[in-house]
């Protein structure tokens, strides 16, 4: 088994560590999937209040960025008239800024502006009878694409160019993981493992001094060595086509990405960044690993032919 560990261990994580402390599990549903938190509660911690705070924070993210909620800020932007400038809430603006940066870096392999394509392929809130025809794909492509967006980060304003629909499903879940972890830290929680729909971030350590260990799933039929990751100040996001079929669309073609990629896992301090890069690498295939390498992204890509690792991930493997 391969073991991946972070480059540095935070000595502060071990200060006052109580080996007899209990680990508490909380869970629920959000974003069409489930969330779970394992935490070591600090003294006089109100777990009921903490769970309520998690639910409220996640509900707030859904209310801003959900492609499925007609009343969300995102859906209202998608319906806005051409030339309309929309002032985004701070979290929404933060995610849009990150999404546009990664879209530019990956030459559109990750693109937050493909909501029309997502809808016509039946990956959105409304069911469709079958695959779209060429005319429907061409029409959706004409109104899609991150390059059509004008974003004013200082004023948190985003301009609707006409007919464009945002879909942040490739980055918002990771953002939610980071946000819950940050909120727990504000409540005095130092040691935690936060998970939403398979995206995880670990902070601190377990009461026994061990990191939060996570074994990455291997798709059926792929014969590679298992990989175990120490989530200590580290997040992991995985994207793939082996569970739900070709649900990752290539924004550059308007069609499902099919490059022999079974799954991609990305390690990064931010679950949001890991989430978006996992999507980009799934869409772009092994060729995109060179781009990830330039930007120091730790990634593992599993294909029909085996695996590829970026140097940043290789450096994390224990010899």
From TrEMBL:
Organism annotation: Sphingomonas longa
An example Gene Ontology molecular-function term: transferase activity
Annotated Pfam families: ApbE
Required cofactor names: Mg(2+)
EC number, as in UniProt: 2.7.1.180
Protein name from the UniProt record: FAD:protein FMN transferase
Keywords from the UniProt entry: FAD, Flavoprotein, Magnesium, Metal-binding, Transferase
Catalytic reactions on record: L-threonyl-[protein] + FAD = FMN-L-threonyl-[protein] + AMP + H(+)
UniProt keyword annotation of ATP-binding present: no
Family recorded in the similarity comment: Belongs to the ApbE family.
